[in-house]
Write a structure and sequence with these properties.
single chain; about 300 residues; mainly alpha; two-stranded antiparallel sheet; 9 strands
């Protein structure tokens, strides 16, 4: 239960940051392009969540890695807020080839073991240590190492089960396809319901068994395998203090609920990230330099 509470606290901090950034950027006024002279407006910056386009011949169309697909074949190189891996999100990806099982495992591994994950796990572990969640671990650097290991293990297990194992077995697509259609309410509803609705490899809508069963299996594995059992700890007031086990059905259910909530929030942010990114890219572009207009009168050779 303590581990779940620490994750929830970290989630609240992360959500507040993301939502504050989101609404502040959407409400900001974009700088209008310069209209002086004959200068053409600069080309819009490409959105990294869109599959990378590359020149291809007719015989290459439809093959993985071509026709607008990235080198990862239907994945992206995008990062939420330029930091968090967002490799399984596609914008305008209505018709893309399905991922093979090998590709599903590869892209999940690329995101799970991305360098930014290690300090993120460290932050979650520090929050857990400060809250003394799972008190059977105790305190000190050894306890912090145990919390870091369980945090990394929980993330790794859940990522692979939800994004690779179950999608491969059930032939479901682990990618999130952004809608970008309708207003804020419609897009919000679309993103939130993706926890329960996903695509099959053949492109049909289906109940998201990979998310629901994968996260439940991950919660059970983490709870009953490497999280602490009941033990006795020596404290300043009690040299033989009994600490109950964290390996309980209630704790597993609470972890499952937390993982579903975090995944729902993450998908919501993914839906609106292209809008945020475009505004950030547009504001960072300098105005086009003014060019002299056409000269009048006779020109000298």
């Amino acid at each position: 239960m303590g581990e779940s509470l620490s994750i929830k606290f970290a989630a609240r901090v992360l959500v507040c940051f993301m939502l504050a950034s989101f609404f502040s950027l959407l409400s900001a006024q974009a700088t209008p392009p310069s209209t002086s002279g004959q200068a053409q407006p600069p080309a819009a910056a490409p959105n990294p969540s869109t599959p990378e386009a590359s020149p291809s011949s007719d015989k290459d169309k439809g093959k993985p890695g071509t026709s607008g697909q990235s080198n990862s074949s239907g994945t992206s190189k995008d990062r939420l807020f330029y930091a968090l891996p967002n490799f399984l999100t596609l914008e305008n990806g209505g018709k893309v080839p399905p991922l093979t099982s090998k590709q599903k495992f590869a892209v999940v591994a690329r995101g799970t073991f991305d360098p930014v994950q290690y300090p993120w796990w460290g932050l979650l572990s520090a929050i857990s240590q400060a809250e003394n969640s799972e008190p059977a671990f105790g305190q000190g650097w050894a306890a912090y190492g145990k919390r870091y290991g369980t945090t990394a293990g929980d993330s790794t297990v859940e990522n692979f089960l939800v994004g690779a194992v179950f999608p491969s077995v059930l032939h479901q697509d682990p990618r999130f396809f952004q809608s970008s259609e309708g207003g804020f309410g419609r897009r919000s509803w679309y993103s939130i319901t993706r926890i329960f609705v996903t695509r099959t490899d053949s492109g049909h809508a289906q109940f998201n068994f990979s998310e629901i069963l994968g996260s439940a299996t991950g919660a059970a594995i983490s709870t009953y395998s490497y999280h602490p059992r009941s033990t006795y700890l020596s404290t300043p007031t009690n040299p033989h203090k009994f600490i109950g086990s964290d390996r309980t059905l209630g704790n597993a259910a609470d972890v499952w609920e937390t993982q579903l909530a975090l995944d729902t929030i993450t998908i919501f942010v993914k839906e609106f990230w292209p809008d945020i990114h475009r505004k950030m890219s547009h504001k960072s572009q300098p105005d086009a330099p003014s060019l002299p207009g056409p000269t009048t009168g006779n020109s000298h050779q």
